[in-house]
Structure formats: structure tokens, C-alpha cells
Design brief:
It is a single chain. The chain is mainly α. Helix content is about 85%, strand content about 0%. It is rod-shaped. It starts with a helix and ends with a helix.
Length: about 150
């Protein structure tokens, strides 16, 4: 059984054609898988781009909020410093008034003029009138501080 050479050659060509068709089918499947993966990747890149844009806009919003808060806080700090300076002046004035009230002494009827003129090393208790003046001054200072705090 010998086959003519032409038939043998056609059988070999058919086998090669079948192998080529099988290889092309396999290559087609791989290309389709790659294209579908590429589509998925394209969708992923689009979603990532959208998320990035949202993050950028959120960061811009945070910057604006931070600047507004910074300005408000700076204004409050400036106001607090001004109030602290004013309070310091009021405290100094109150201390000055208290010192003046503490230094004001009346000579007692039993004391002699020499004793009244001599400075005393220990302060005596303030008279009721001096205490009332000091209490009134303290109340006025307290009211002034309350008004400034508002």
C-alpha cells in the first residue's frame, strides 16, 4: 500500500492546517482574555481617577476650612491677649488701690503725735469705712471684668 506522493503531501498539509487552526483558536482565546482584562483595567483606572479627583476636592475643602479656622482662632487669640493686657492693668490698679487702702491709717485717740507720725511696721486692721471702700472697688473691678468677658 503505497500512497502516491501527491496524496501523502496533501495529508501532511492537512495536518499542518489543522495544527495551525488549533493554534489560531488558542491564540484567539488568549487575545480575548487579554482584551477583557484590559477592559477591566480600563474600568479600574477610571474608578481610580474618579477617587483621586474626589480626594483632591476634599483636600481643597479641608484647606479652606483650615484657613477659616486659623483666621478665627487668630482673631480669638488677639482678643484674648488684649483682654489679658487690660486685665493685667486692672489687677495692677486694684493692687494699687488695695495698697493705698492698706497704708491709710488713722491715729487712735490714745496715741501721741510722735507715735502717729512714726511709720508702723505691722499694718493694723482697716476701719469699716476702708473695708467698705475696698469692697466697692472690688465689686466695680469684678463688674468691669464681666463686661469685658462678654
Amino acid at each position: 500500500m503505497t500512497l502516491p506522493f501527491d496524496v501523502f503531501l496533501e495529508i501532511v498539509v492537512c495536518v499542518f492546517l489543522a495544527a495551525t487552526i488549533a493554534y489560531c483558536a488558542m491564540l484567539d482565546r488568549r487575545l480575548r482574555a487579554m482584551r477583557s482584562g484590559q477592559d477591566g483595567l480600563r474600568e479600574l483606572v477610571g474608578e481610580l481617577n474618579t477617587a483621586t479627583q474626589r480626594a483632591v476636592s476634599a483636600i481643597d475643602g479641608l484647606k479652606q476650612a483650615s484657613e477659616a479656622t486659623n483666621e478665627e482662632l487668630g482673631e480669638r487669640v488677639r482678643t484674648a491677649r488684649a483682654l489679658a493686657d487690660e486685665l493685667s492693668l486692672m489687677v495692677e490698679a486694684g493692687n494699687s488701690i488695695a495698697d493705698k487702702l492698706g497704708r491709710t491709717e488713722r491715729p487712735s485717740p490714745q496715741s501721741t503725735p510722735v507715735q502717729a507720725a512714726a511709720p508702723r511696721s505691722t499694718p493694723q486692721a482697716a476701719s469699716p469705712r476702708d473695708a467698705a471702700v475696698a469692697a466697692r472697688a472690688a465689686n466695680q473691678l469684678l463688674e468691669a471684668l464681666k463686661k469685658k468677658a462678654r
